Amino acid sequence: MENNSGSGGLAQQVNSGWKRMEKDEINERPIGRYEGKVHLIRSEIELPDAVRLLEKESLLGFDTETRPAYQKGEKYPPALLQLAGANEVFLFQLKFTGLPRPLLDILANPNIIKAGVSLNHDINELRSLVQFEPAGFVDIGDLAKKKGIQNHGLRGLAAVLLGFRITKSAKTTNWSRSDLTEAQIRYAATDAWVGRMLYIELQK
């Protein structure tokens, strides 16, 4: 994976009293992205194997992606659910898979931590599709605040704690399309993977 992560960014911030890292400083960091194994789940047939692997994890990075809306009153449902395990990332295209009970059971399992940023919005959007009781979710932004870290977003926290920046070039692309591009797949996988990595870093 392309990054220069490690404890360098963390040590620098500790020494400077967790000074807020500004946009220009973040942009000076090298780009990092997830280069590991990604499973794009597009059918119910693929779900059992994915769920079986996810159930073995104790910590998952979590994120969702939604097609952007540009006009007043325009709104789209979440299109992608990303869950990052220790060795692989799973991307669920919800237009094909929906949110079946085995997947909801993972989102409702208090023994599996789901770590991400600004979770309330993502969870509420998923619950607009199917009602479930979320459990085991940890907002990394809240953890960062408790430690006195001034950056609370995913991009800022990656720069501060992991020493690299994540590109947001695919953020406003059409996530509802049937065939996601390689850039979209890597972007989505990276966001979930970074959530998991940040949780581990904040526990040190």
Provide a descriptive summary of the structure in words.
This protein has about 200 residues and is an alpha/beta fold. The chain has one domain: Ribonuclease H-like superfamily/Ribonuclease H (Nucleotidyltransferase, domain 5, 2-Layer Sandwich). Helix content is about 40%, strand content about 15%. The chain is built from 9 helices and 6 strands, in the order ααβαβββααβαβααα. The chain has a 6-stranded mixed beta sheet, sandwiched between helices. Helix 1 crosses helix 8 and helix 8 packs across helix 9. It is globular. The N terminus is likely disordered.
Runs in which pLDDT lies below 50 for 5 or more consecutive residues are 1-16
Structural class from helices and strands?
alpha/beta
CATH architect. name: 2-Layer Sandwich
N-to-C span: 22 Å
Q: Strands of the largest sheet, in order across it?
A: 1-4-3-2-5-6
Report the sheet-strand fraction.
15-25%
- Report on the biggest sheet: 6 strands, mixed
Helix content: 25-40%
- Radius of gyration, CA atoms, in whole angstroms: 17 Å
The CATH topology is Nucleotidyltransferase, domain 5
Count of alpha/pi helices: 9
Mean pLDDT: 89
State the fourth-level CATH superfamily. Answer: Ribonuclease H-like superfamily/Ribonuclease H
Shape: globular
What is the count of β-strands?
6
Number of domains: 1
* Name of the CATH class: Alpha Beta
What's the SSE pattern? Answer: HHEHEEEHHEHEHHH
